[in-house]
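Many introductory courses stop at the sequence. We go one step further.
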Amino acid sequence: MVHHLSETSGTHNDSTIYGNEGTCYGTMDQDGDGIIDGADVFDGSDDLIDVGTDSSMNIYGSNNDFSISLWVKRDDLTNMEGFFASGSASTSGIVFCTKFDDQNDIRFLSKDNTVDVSSNSNVLNDYTWHLIGVTADRDGMINLWVDGISVASQNISTSASENWDRTADTYKIGTDRSEGAPYDGVIDEVRTYNGLLSEGWIKTEYNNQYDTSSFYDIGVEETIADEPILANPSPYNGATNVELTPSLSVEVFDVQSAFIAGRHFLHVILETLE
C-alpha cells in the first residue's frame, strides 16, 4: 500500500495495483502541507483513514517479513497517539504508535502484544517532520526507525510462527487499534511493504524526501553534434616519416544515426594516393 495523501477531498487513492483506497472519517483536513505535495491534518479527536480489509494488506502473517513507513509532523507532544493500526483490540491486530508513558518515543505492538518494542530517547520531541518506520525480519530482528536511524531493535525470532494479520475491524491510519489514541498533527506518504526494507533503502528514502534539492544535482544538458565525428585518423596530424604512398583511414561516428538506430560506426578507408 502506498498513500501519497495528495487528494484534497474525497477518497485517498492507493498508488499500488491493489487499490487499498482510504476513506476519511471525522473532520479531516485533506489539504495540508506535506513533506511531498499535500498531506492530511488530523485533529487529535476523531479523524482517521480507513484503508479497508483487502487480503493484500495481510502482510503480517507467520514468517512473513514486513515494513511500514510514514512521515509525521506532530501538533501535540503530550498524548499517546496511533500512527497505523489494524484490528479493534490487542487480540485482533498490530499497532504502531507513541508510548503511553513517554509520548515522545515510538512503539510497535504485535497482535496479542507478544512483541513489544519501543525507543527510549525522546525521538519525537518536537513539531518538525520525521520519517518513522518499522522493519520486521520475522526470524530475526525488528527495528524502529526515525529519520533513517534505528532507534530500537529486538530479536523476534521466537514469535516467527505467530500470525499477526488482522482478525477484526480494518486497517487504519491516524489512530490505534481501539481508536482511543487519535493522532494530532500531519501525516504524509504512508507505505506498507510485503518484505524487509534495507538500512540503505531507509536512509536513502529519508535523504531523498526530506531535502530533494540537496540529494541530487541537475547538470547542464548535453548536446548532440549535427555533423559526423571524425576520429583515429591514420596517419595522425603531424605524423613524421610517412610513406610517400600511404593508406589513409579515419573512423566516422554518425551521431544522429546512432541516436536513432543504435551504434553505427563507419570505417572509411581512403584509396592509396597515386
